[in-house]
Amino acid sequence: MDPMKRDRLQSVSLSASDVCDIVRFAPLFAVLDAAGAPAVPGMMIAAGDDSKALYMSHSDPELEMVAPYVVRLTTDRIAQIREHLWNDPWGILIEFDGDMMTLRRHLRQYLIVQSPEGRPLYFRFYDPRVLHTFVRSADKKSRAEFFGPMKALIARDTDPDAFVRYTLIESPAVAPSPAAFGL
pTM of the entire structure? Predict the structure, then answer.
């Protein structure tokens, strides 16, 4: 299916246990925000090759302490998130069938965006508070481009045990009215 044909936003509420179950049945990644959750850098060091900072690959100790990281989730990692990050604005979850580096390349396109005046701005889409606002208010084209190859985005709601899963679905074809056939 052409990603640009997915033009209708669908949102479904999930419980924390639903989110923890998804990792058992679907390829799931997280973008964890070290600026919102200080435990993230240590967790990402422990994750090794299963995690990568979204910013440039060269090491900058100051940036590593506040950078967003993409990480492949396992049942153990989701348990770590629950134990160490759950009450912080720790990031978002992404259902994605590809490899981590493909997802990272896609997401890196959105780290810096332009303001209406043409100024570069950091776009903190990985902050659940920002993601909710963006996906609900973006125009169809921008939303479809952002979703790209991602199947779903999952972000914590205001309650730490409530989440919203966003997907884009194709709008149903509109059948011509009988009047179009002179009936």
Answer: 0.86
